[in-house]
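Aim 2 progress update. The chain analyzed this quarter is reproduced below.
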Amino acid sequence: MSSDFIARLVGMVVFGVVGAYFGGSVAGDLLPQPRIIYSVVLSLVGVLVGLVLTPYITTRPVRALRSLLGRLDAQTLVASLVGLIVGLVIAALLAFPLSLLPPPFGEILPFLGVLIVSYFGVAVFVMRQNDIFGIFLNRLPRRKGLEEDSLASGRKILVDTSVIIDGRIADIAHTGFLSGTLLIPRFVLNELQYIADSADALRRQRGRRGMEVLARLQEDPSVMVQISDIDVEGTREVDDKLVILARQLKALVLTNDYNLNRIAELQGVPVLNVNELANAVKAVLLPGESIKVSIIQEGKEPGQGVGYLDDGTMVVVENGARHIGEDLVVNVTKVLQTAAGRMIFARPEVKS
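Predicted structure tokens:
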């Protein structure tokens, strides 16, 4: 049984008893009809009210509070708690002099002071949490050989399903280029498991490869991986949840999905795109340089041959169709950067 159903049953009983008591004790003294009539009528009204309103005053506020707390990271929760304690201490110090004021100020201002000072204490500590934690971390003695910077290790990087399936994230993270904690929400794992259990053989294989990549990340001692139960209410799309969560946690999104990249950038969320990184680290070739490439197929234009470098860059060779299946030394004539990647145009090297 769900918590809402149980709450409705309890509410029906409680409100029914309260209605029966009110009808028999209060209404029966004020109105001329027999008390039993008012007891039955108000008891039924109480049952109806309890059936309808109980979840809105019990389980749903609690669920909303749990959802809010689940979206907050540990640093924000600690800062809020410290700010609340500081605010209560200051309010307690102000309560005595405020209570000495003439009524009604001496009765109202101490209570208002507790609310206002506590609110400002929480707000100030949450807004300046990075600065406050930075002060304490800088005062801690650093161990010799400590490689991770405190600010870098505190950075959160939300990992998309596509980049886990891609597999290159394990090698990139192992090199140390990803500074921070790789945060993998539970809904990303659920999507990965759904792909791994797909009836389609190709999707199933990709999902299982993603599981293996995730296991490699967790076993790597140089990579900080955190599985989180943080969720986003009100949306079911994984991409939308990642963007909303990144804005709430002030985190980065790691992906190779072009659509997710664009959506996140439009909403001001910083993105780490694996494909952009791969294009950035490719070797720079200038017109006139010589490279060796294996011609594997014909090009779109007559006489063209197509080959690929080790990093996957396409090389279109003029008059290379007759060299299919051969390793050919070519001279670069033009390098073209496109949205899909980089293309190199070349012609066979003339032997002198």
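Residues 142-152 have pLDDT under 50 and may be disordered. The two ends are 85 Å apart (CA to CA). These observations will guide the mutagenesis experiments scheduled for the next reporting period.
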